[in-house]
Amino acid sequence: MVLTGSTVRLFIGIPLAAEVIDGLERLSRSLRSDDDRLRWTSVDSWHITLQFLGETSEERYKCLAPRLREVVSAPLSIQVGELGVFDRAGVFFADVHVSEELSQLQRSVIAATSTCGCAAEERPFHPHITLARAKGDNRMHALRKLKNNFKPNVRFRPFTAQEFLLYESILGPRGSHYEVREHFSIVDR
Hints:
Layout: E1 7-15, H1 18-31, E2 38-40, E3 47-57, H2 58-69, E4 76-78, E5 80-86, E6 91-96, H3 100-114, E7 128-134, H4 139-149, E8 159-161, E9 163-172, E10 175-185
Antiparallel strand pairs: 1-3, 1-9, 2-7, 4-8, 5-6, 6-7, 9-10
């Protein structure tokens, strides 16, 4: 990747299995309304973030891929769980169960990126899939209304993560869209 002197906005995440995407898409469609005042995320943006890297220089980018290829993890089972809301952030999400294997992969990714000068977030790891965002003054009202419409205890079949990805986040007028920059296999070694 050639950046020609600029930076790119990067993060590392796990892509979702097709059956989970299908289930989340059906669920999202059932909850949407024309007047919900929410910005629903697109299906192609759904992922589980392991680490947000932010603005990254070409020099740092060149360091990241080789370090991330060294990450060792057994294939891991991912369980998408209940629906929830981050009130302060105005985010509606599907929760992801934090297994020991998922935590270990996240710690290994952070250890690998730290050798390139990337810092870990200070808040605890809370893997989730962002389904919608509420903006503006009526954000709390929009989220309360949504909470009243979704059923707790939605369940998805677990899926096995075979890889994690390095994504570029490209900001646009309708929000961000993501492009995959690198694939990293999760294999038993």
